[in-house]
Structures are given as structure tokens and as C-alpha cells.
């Protein structure tokens, strides 16, 4: 937390005079009240991304689907989705056959439950691209090795992705990033483990790639770490960002589970941005209850529009600090030493019944052009 310094009304007048004479900085600000018993989470920067996956994917061509593609499941009732890369050449589940290794064969979708053809998939509007179909392998087929094959006439060179989701499986890939966001020059750190019923499993093969919001990909190298693997990679590439979108680490593992080789694919998101500014010295709270403000110093290395968010705390009659309001203030700043003046809502302050001394806590600095949390 930044230190708070109270200054006199004379100093405030000088500051306001300087602000009036400065160039137009297009400042905008708003506040909303926080109830004293509210456990509102005021900072997103504490979030650490972690994901778990009970699914895997295979990239195949039309010829492979016509000949037969091997699928492995660890529990009955796997959900299967097939997507055509061109968005048109869907493989309809009513034209697909499935057979068990050394067992029965089921033709024309008879081994599936909940068949969803391409037209139904689009009609339901559930967000999948055109050319996508899906089905559930019937529970009575059990688990294990299957061969999936189509009699449909499709382009043998057409590209398809098969996604197998085992919602009831005990085997999952766990990915955890050490941070929610990274800046250029930082080291990406992500841990990967495969667990089955809480027990770590032996990973036989692991590979991955970083994918930017614009689709640019970068190879990564996993190294053994304890009972799992870890990526530690200096982030030196261009930030290559789309505002509001995240980078992802895509990971594919194959692990030995109960004598079987099980595949899992997962991805973990994080932000990756340029460090365009940093907080300066002490935050100063100035003025009286009717015109209370906070001056937040900012050191800028690249022109942009910056935003400061913070929670104003006041003192009750017993001397306890309690939250009053969350305030967001945005301003255009050029390179060099600058500041953002946060104006607190006088009505919210009066209605709170709290008074000086005040503190500004949970302060965040953001670059709105990147939609990035800098502090």
C-alpha cells in the first residue's frame, strides 16, 4: 500500500492552478459506494490462473476419418466433437461408425447418444464454428480403445479436429501459472501435472506452445520438476496484443495411468503487456470533505491513457478504518513524471458518516490502451 500524506489547502490551490493551466488531459472519473460490511474484491491482480483439463484433441484429415481414427477413453460416456477447419465440410454423426477394440461395431450413429448434426449445432447457437458436429459415446459401450470411422464422402485432404471430453474421468491435466500477468522481460513460469484420484501420474511426453491474441505461436520447452514439469521462459517477443484478449499456453501431455497411455490437452491464460508506466512516490490526499481528492504520482515511459483505481477508507467514531467508495479516474499522460488527480464523490462521502483521517487502499494503475494492470 502507498503511504498517505495530508497537505494543506494552500498546496492544493497551487496544484489545482497548475492543472487548470496544463494542456487538456481529458480526465474522467466516477465513484461508487461500498457498504462497510461489503467483502467486495477490489483487485484483480491477486488472481493466479490455474486450469484443469479432462479432454484431449486430435488433428486428422478426411482420409484418416474414412479409414478409422483411434480414440481412448478412461470412463464411459465421453463427449466427442468434430470440427471442419473450412467451416463447411461437416462430418455428420449419423454417417459415423464406432467399434470397440476386439468387440462389437455400431454403424451409422447407433453407438452414440445425443447426436447433434451440423444444422442442429448452429440452430442451438452454442458458439461453435460452422461445420461442427457432436455426440456422446453410449454408456453401454464402456471405456477403452475405440475406432471412429465415417462412410461419408469428404475431401481426403480436408482438415478436422476431434475433441474428446471425459467429464467423469479421474485423470486430469493441471496447469498453473505463477502470475496472472507478465511484462516484457519477465520470465513466464507455468507448472504442469497429471493427477488421477489425487495421485501424481508419470508424464511420458509433454509439448506446448505460446499463442498470442493474434494467433502468433512460439514453441516452449518443458523441463522435469518434481512429479511434474515446468516452463520457465523469458518473455522477449513483441506483445502482439488485441485489447481485452489474453495470451495462452497450449499444452499436450501423454501420461501412464493404470498401465494405459492417456492424453490430455489444456491451456492456461495470462496477460502479457508492455510496462508503460509505474507508480511514483507517495499518494497524497488533499482538500476537505466537500472537495476531497487524491494525487497519484505516475512515471510514464510511453504516452497513453492511464487509469487509477482505489478504495477510499475513512474513520468511524471508534477510530476504525472502513471503506467508503471505489473510485476510477482516467487521464491522458505523456512521457515523464506526471500525476492523476482522483476526485471523490462528496455525496457518497457525506452519506458514509465517516471522516478524516482518510486512506487510499488497493491502488491499481492501468494502461487503458493495453487494458493492462501495471501495478
Helix content: under 10%
Distance between the termini: 11 Å
Q: Per CATH, what is the topology of the largest domain?
A: Immunoglobulin-like
**Helix/sheet category:** mainly beta
- Estimated radius of gyration: 28 Å
* Shape verdict: elongated
Fourth-level CATH superfamily of the largest domain: Uncharacterised protein PF16024, DUF4785
Largest sheet: 6 strands, antiparallel
State the domain count: 3
> What integer is the average pLDDT?
88
Number of beta strands: 30
Q: Give the percentage of residues in beta strands.
A: over 45%
Architecture per CATH nomenclature, i.e. the level-2 architecture of the largest domain: Sandwich
So how many helices?
4
CATH top level of the largest domain is Mainly Beta
Low-confidence stretches: 1-24, 41-45
General description of the model:
This protein is mainly β and 375 residues long. The protein folds into three domains: 4-46 and 277-373, Uncharacterised protein PF16024, DUF4785 (Immunoglobulin-like), CATH 2.60.40.3870; 58-165, Jelly Rolls (Sandwich); 171-273, Macroglobulin (MG2) domain (Immunoglobulin-like, Sandwich), CATH 2.60.40. The chain is 9% helix and 53% strand. It has four helices and 30 strands. The chain has helices at residues 9-21, 62-67, 118-124, 346-352, and strands at residues 4-6, 28-33, 50-53, 55-61, 69-73, 79-84, 96-100, 105-106, 112-116, 132-137, 144-150, 159-165, 171-177, 181-183, 187-196, 199-200, 202-211, 217-220, 223-225, 228-234, 247-257, 260-273, 277-279, 283-286, 293-300, 304-315, 321-333, 336-343, 355-367, 372-373. The strands form six sheets. Strands 3, 13, 15, 16, 19 and 20 form a six-stranded antiparallel sheet that branches. Strands 1, 23, 24, 25 and 28 form a five-stranded mixed sheet that branches. It has a five-stranded antiparallel sheet with strand order 2-27-26-29-30. β26 and β27 (321-333) form a beta hairpin. The longest helix is centred in the first third of the chain and has 13 residues, at 9-21. It is elongated, with a radius of gyration of 28 Å. It starts with a strand and ends with a strand. Residues 1-24 and 41-45 have low confidence and may be disordered. Pfam families: DUF4785_1st (PF16024), DUF4785_2nd (PF20942), DUF4785_3rd (PF20943). This is DUF4785 domain-containing protein.
Amino acid at each position: 500500500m502507498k503511504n498517505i500524506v495530508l497537505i494543506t489547502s494552500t498546496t492544493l490551490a497551487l496544484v489545482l492552478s497548475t492543472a487548470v493551466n496544463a494542456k487538456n488531459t481529458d480526465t474522467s472519473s466516477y465513484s461508487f459506494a461500498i457498504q462497510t460490511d461489503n467483502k467486495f474484491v477490489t483487485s484483480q491482480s491477486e488472481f493466479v490462473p490455474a486450469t484443469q483439463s479432462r479432454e484431449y484433441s486430435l488433428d486428422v484429415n478426411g482420409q484418416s476419418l474414412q479409414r478409422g481414427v483411434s480414440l481412448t477413453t478412461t470412463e464411459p460416456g465421453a463427449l466427442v466433437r468434430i470440427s471442419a477447419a473450412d467451416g463447411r465440410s461437416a462430418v455428420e454423426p449419423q454417417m459415423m461408425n464406432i467399434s470397440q477394440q476386439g468387440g462389437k461395431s455400431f454403424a451409422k450413429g447407433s453407438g452414440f447418444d445425443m447426436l447433434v448434426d451440423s444444422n442442429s449445432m448452429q440452430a442451438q447457437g452454442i458458439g461453435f464454428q460452422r461445420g461442427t458436429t457432436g455426440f456422446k459415446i453410449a454408456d453401454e459401450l464402456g471405456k477403452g480403445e475405440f475406432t471412429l470411422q465415417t462412410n461419408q464422402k469428404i475431401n481426403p485432404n480436408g482438415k478436422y479436429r476431434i475433441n474428446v471430453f471425459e467429464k467423469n474421468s479421474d485423470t486430469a491435466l493441471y496447469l498453473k501459472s505463477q502470475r496472472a500477468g507478465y511484462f516484457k522481460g519477465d520470465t513466464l513460469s507455468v507448472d504442469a501435472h497429471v493427477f488421477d484420484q489425487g495421485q501424481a501420474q508419470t508424464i511420458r511426453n509433454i509439448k506446448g506452445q505460446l499463442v498470442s491474441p493474434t494467433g502468433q505461436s512460439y514453441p516452449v520447452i518443458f523441463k522435469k520438476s518434481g512429479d511434474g514439469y515446468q516452463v520457465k521462459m523469458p518473455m522477449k517477443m513483441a506483445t502482439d496484443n488485441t485489447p481485452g484478449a489474453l495470451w495462452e499456453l497450449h499444452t499436450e501431455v501423454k501420461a501412464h495411468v493404470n498401465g494405459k497411455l492417456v492424453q490430455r490437452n489444456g491451456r492456461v491464460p495470462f496477460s502479457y503487456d508492455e510496462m508503460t508506466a509505474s507508480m511514483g512516490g507517495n499518494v497524497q490526499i488533499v482538500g476537505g470533505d466537500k472537495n476531497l481528492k487524491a494525487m497519484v504520482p505516475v512515471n510514464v515511459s510511453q504516452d497513453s491513457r492511464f487509469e487509477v483505481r482505489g478504495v477510499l477508507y475513512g474513520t468511524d467514531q471508534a477510530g476504525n478504518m472502513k471503506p467508503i467508495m471505489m473510485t476510477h479516474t482516467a487521464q491522458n499522460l505523456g512521457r515523464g513524471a506526471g500525476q492523476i488527480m482522483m476526485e471523490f464523490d462528496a455525496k457518497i462521502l457525506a452519506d458514509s458518516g465517516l471522516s478524516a483521517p482518510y486512506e487510499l487502499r488497493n491502488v491499481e494503475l492501468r494502461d487503458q490502451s493495453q487494458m493492462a494492470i501495471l501495478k
